[in-house]
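Progress against Task 2.4 (sequence-to-structure conversion) is shown through the following example record, which the project officer requested during the mid-term review.
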Amino acid sequence: MDRHEPEAEALPPPGYAEVRIVSATPEAARRVADVLRRCFVGDEQRSYPAPHGGTRLHLTVDTAHAAEPARSWLASSRPPSGTGHHTGEP
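Structure tokens generated for the chain above:
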């Protein structure tokens, strides 16, 4: 088989996506998986060694059901209201 040909794999059920994360460290791969799990309901991740000492994580996410209410980048980048100083405070 040519290394550039995609492997023959079973497709996930409709509404689901298989996600593969390859990273030099397990911590970086877990951080990416954590972000995905905040957006989509997903199954338990599976961890495998990657070439050259890296880490490869596989997880299946349900793209039809959000895990948390989605917030825009702008809304999530602003500090929560009510956390700053009030008039007359030092």
